[in-house]
Design goal:
Number of domains: 2
Structural class: mainly beta
Shape: globular
Mean pLDDT: 84
Number of helices: 3
CATH class of the largest domain: Mainly Beta
Strand content: 35-45%
Helix content: under 10%
Number of strands: 30
Radius of gyration: 31 Å
Low-confidence stretches: 1-27
Distance between the termini: 18 Å
Largest sheet: 7 strands, mixed
CATH architecture of the largest domain: Sandwich
């Protein structure tokens, strides 16, 4: 039996064992990639009828390529899936692109970007280029991933419909199915899923043959598919100990907040595709954890804070409005005119303000800027530690919003380890004329185990002898170093028990 020893008690043998909770280290992330092996480009079949249709009427009318993935271990945690296509087409708004996993799970990556209706022809910008006889002379590389910087639905919007897309805008996208349903597609036998992150739970089930489908839903413009590749980043993530763990966003640099295209202001977000989205990937929450706090800190610059609506979206789609049109008195009011950070004369950011939101925040974001009089940098003159306030915003009316609106951080706590995954910071500018940039953001989550705390401390165990034992004296005179025969020594035993499994021994005395 484990018994702490009183200070006054003597014993012939005491074994003290210090133990603490075992903390395992994560292995280095690895990447498994596969690419198509077609010897040359393949044509994307043109729609034989005039006009356009969004989606895919028959999967057999799409161009297809396959690639094989191997090497993902069974215990791996999937961190990212990235798909790249080398493609040429003279009207990007014609295209619908699907990615099919080995088990048939199918993610729509893109569907008629820029099309406002199901029969709209979408954006007319080019991918790559072609000769006068319709042969490709160059290909554009477009990439889709969990952490893509740009909404696929906005592909071509920056080019004005007259240029090669990737020559003037980022071609690093996150998927957007734009409401596409494959349920009515002939010869589709798979299962539609909403995003790449929905595939992560398959782990080593992602080994196998992947298929890309490219469909042309508009008659008259043609294109070709050169090749495609897929890379899956995976890790063996072991549970972190309890505490607060912070995750930075994944963006490689500052991300512009698209300015509202028309004059005047609007409160809320008419279309989620018009907003900037920046992502962070959380892996630190063990199963069975109790989440006790969530906070997000945003490094941001904008010249009219009242233009902004900022949302935080959890991996399951739960979406918390953090601020919406600070200082706006009406749905069309332009709100407070104070600045976040500063910019140069040519509209490039020269400094950023850090604004933080948490349940314990001390200021109402609806009052953001009210202490500056509308003429100064907010965080220079007032606290930038806020609690969320969506000011009555209703995301149910927002086009392309498919999540669940929540009103507080506390509503996210119950998700526990469901908070692992892709988080999105969504920033929308609802006022024309003033511009801004998101530099990055950091998400911090505090959690603790829900069961009893792991044992730690010092445990002492007595020797088994009931009475004192004599140490045999050496039978001859003189001294010798060491033990000639172990049978000449006194042996006293002690039994150690009740040391829990999965502990780290830090000392024995």
């Amino acid at each position: 039996m484990m018994t702490p020893l009183p200070l006054s008690k003597s014993c012939w043998l005491t074994l003290s064992v210090l133990f603490a909770s075992l903390i395992l280290q994560a292995q280095v992330p690895d990447v498994s990639c596969g690419s198509s092996s077609n010897p040359s480009f393949i044509n994307i079949p043109d729609r034989p009828l005039a006009g356009c249709v969004e989606g895919i009427e028959d999967l057999n009318t799409a161009a297809t390529l396959t690639a094989n993935i191997s090497g993902i271990p069974a215990e791996a945690t999937i961190l990212d899936i990235e798909v790249s296509l080398d493609i040429q087409h003279t009207w990007v708004g014609d295209l619908t692109i699907l990615l099919e996993a080995p088990d048939g799970s199918t993610v729509p990556l893109l569907s008629g970007p820029g099309a406002s209706t199901s029969t709209g022809c979408g954006d007319s910008s080019d991918l790559g280029s072609e000769s006068a006889d319709f042969n490709p002379t160059s290909f554009s590389t477009i990439t889709f991933s969990t952490f893509g910087a740009t909404d696929a639905e906005s592909m071509g919007a920056a080019s004005g419909g007259a240029s090669e897309i990737c020559a003037i805008e980022s071609c690093d996208f996150f998927p957007n199915a734009d409401g596409l349903s494959l349920a009515g597609t002939a010869n589709f036998t798979g299962t539609q899923v909403n995003d790449l992150a929905s595939l992560f739970a398959q782990q080593d089930g992602l080994n196998g043959t992947w298929t890309i489908y490219v469909h042309d839903g508009g008659g008259g413009d043609v294109g070709t598919l050169d090749d495609f590749s897929i890379c899956i980043t995976h890790d063996i993530i072991v549970q972190e100990p309890a505490g607060t763990f912070c995750t930075p966003s994944n963006n490689a640099g500052p991300v512009n907040i698209p300015d509202r295209a028309v004059a005047g202001c609007i409160d809320g977000i008419p279309d989620l595709a018009e907003a900037t989205q920046v992502t962070a990937f959380v892996t630190s929450i063990p199963p069975g954890s109790e989440v006790t706090d969530i906070s997000v800190s945003i490094d941001i610059q904008h010249t009219w804070v009242g233009d902004l609506t900022i949302l935080l979206q959890a991996p399951d789609g739960s979406t918390l409005p953090l601020v919406s049109g600070a200082g706006a008195d009406t749905e069309t009011g332009c709100g407070d005119s104070s600045d976040l950070g500063s910019e140069s004369a040519d509209f490039n950011p020269t400094s950023y303000s850090t604004i933080t939101f948490s349940a314990a925040g001390i200021s109402d974001p609806e009052l953001m800027g009210s202490g500056t009089g509308g003429t100064s940098i907010i965080c220079d003159l007032e606290s930038c530690d806020f609690f969320p306030n969506g000011d009555g915003i209703n995301l149910g009316a927002t086009t392309n919003f498919a999540g669940l609106q929540v009103s507080s951080f506390e509503q996210l706590y119950d998700l526990g380890d469901g908070l692992n995954g892709v988080w999105r910071l969504i920033v929308h500018d609802g006022g024309g004329g003033d511009v801004g940039v998101v530099e990055d953001f950091e998400l911090c989550i505090t959690h603790q185990p829900t069961g009893p705390p792991p044992p730690s401390g010092t445990a002492c165990f007595d020797s088994d002898n009931e009475t004192p034992q004599n140490i045999p004296d050496r039978p001859v005179g003189g001294c010798i170093d060491g033990i000639p025969d172990l049978n000449d020594a006194l042996a006293v035993t002690g039994t150690v028990s009740e040391v829990p499994e999965d502990v780290t021994i830090t000392d024995i005395s």
